[in-house]
Amino acid sequence: MIPLPSMPSLSDLLTTLISGLGTGSIYALFVLGIVLVFQVSKQVNFAYGQTGMLGAFASWYLLDQVGVPIVLAIVIGLVASTAISAATEMVVVRHVSKVRPGFDLIVTLGMFLVLTAAAEQLFGAEAHPFLTELSDNVFTIGDVYINVSDLVATVVIAAVLAGTYLVLNRTGVGIALRASAEDPDTAKSFGINVPRLRTVVWAIGGLIAGVAAVVFGSRLFVDTNYMIPVLISGFVASMVGGLNRFWSPILVAIGLGVYESVVGLVFGASASVPAVFAVLIVVLTFAPAKWVADEVIRP
Amino acid sequence: MNSTREGSQLNRSIDPAPGPDERPSRPWSRKPRWQADLVDNAAGVAALVAVGVVVPMLVSSYWLFVFGQALFYLLATLGLFHLYGRTGQLSLAHAASMGVGAYVGAVVVIKGMDPVLSLPIAVLAAMAFGLLQAIPAMRLSGLRFAVVTLAFGFLFNWTIENTQDLTGGTQGLIVPGVTINGVSLIEPKHAFWVGLVLAYLATLLTIRLAGSRLGLRMVAVRDSEQAARSVGVDVGMTKVMSFVIASAYAGVAGWFMAFSSGFVSATSFNLFASSYLLVAVILGGAGSVTGAWLGAAYVAIVPRLFSSAGLSSSYPLLGGVLLIVIALLAPGGIVGIVQQVREWWQQRGRSDRVRGTVT
Q: How far is A297 from chain B (nearest CA, A)?
């Protein structure tokens, strides 16, 4: 059934690798947000993709429909994502009873539906091209095509990763964050305001989701559902890499992006979805039990 | 005498395997259990017949169709009752399991198979889909389990979109009408009757299954995997069984929905549809059969009310708000609220009496 792959040329392969690196960078950025939020609050946000989507969709609306300058439109979109994520934590997630661990999934699934419906009410259900000046801008080195949007994604993730690493390891805030991730009670006794820190991290997570959504939207289009594949790939990378680790899920995310692109090149674009699944199933079925152990402690 | 009879009535739904001498006074106790159930629930059967006769006289054929759909949805919510309500595993691909039943049934009938034979094949396909998810999921719990199902739901939609020739892709698929022994599912009245019978049997089966050893193992896994393991429950196997059973329910539901509505479309079985099923089950009360009935009514009827009021885009909003509000304020759903009110009422009466004796 599988069509015999024809050997791609070297320049095709390089082009694919670079675009895969771009996709992987977006996944990695997204996963960074998931991991940060998980480390301090031991919770995962199903609405995380939609948080970014609403921000990016809002910037499209401001840019294309209202005529706001491009930089301002993006900034407002990112602020919206940040605010939505912080609000999700303060209004909803914080109040989930600790006795019922599964309910954080339920409430963020609720947020997923609410944000999707809100985006549809505000901006409509159609897909719109967004920031085409990035993805339409292609230059070549030799025979290798490089998309500016991929380049931006790679540079942004490198910068954000470096920044996050420095903040976590070199600043007081970072140390407080790591302390409360490791042991919230002890951190509290040392005078760290853990709940506030949690909200701040959720807000930062929202900002990261917004950046990822703007960059991803610039490659395709924006609509209410365009971030769902990113959410799934991001979750797959988090599951395979392990949410309680820092570098491993991010590296898995980058690898996943490259892998998807290469599979797409060899077997055709639609083959990348089952290829991601194969990874998920193989890893979760055969990885050592310790690797896949659930970090959520059940009472 | 009277009290022992009441006792055994109660035990029936809880005790997994009562000994042969437990109901000595019953002449029908040697009959197979399901027959005993039918006789026991003569009132239930009578009510069923009454509903089947009266409701079609009262409502238009459109609403009869909607009620029929609600009864088929009930099969799906009862499946989720086992998987989420009893085993505690959050599935975001339950609608996809329905979709497997619907599409497999429709496609094999279009390819010329006998419709009667297509039902077991569709159900087996749905069970295989459940098993495929359960294998990676059996070692996982909570979040990771949910993510695996999320991914599988996505895989289902991808499959439909990429098999245009067979399934019609994003355009949907027109399902041929089938008539079996004079029963035509496309006829709302027939679908409603079939739905009633199915709903009745499925409810009996569900109660029986919940009281069986497997059902008790499911609850043990939900309450604490570690504790369940420590008393010898095979946690992974219980999850797999629960998943496959839930998928079988969903497959039956999907098959009947496809042939009663005459059309299937992948959007009826996507992530949102799975989320609405969860909303339905949690709204009714995740651990209760009554909750599954309420949930089925919600998920079949409320979206149609919204679209007839021209507000169809507000239905997801309602679903999301309901999920949040119920999870935060009323984890037991409607059934839980009713129970709490009843307990509060009884408590109040009792404390009055106590106060009365003191003064």
A: 10
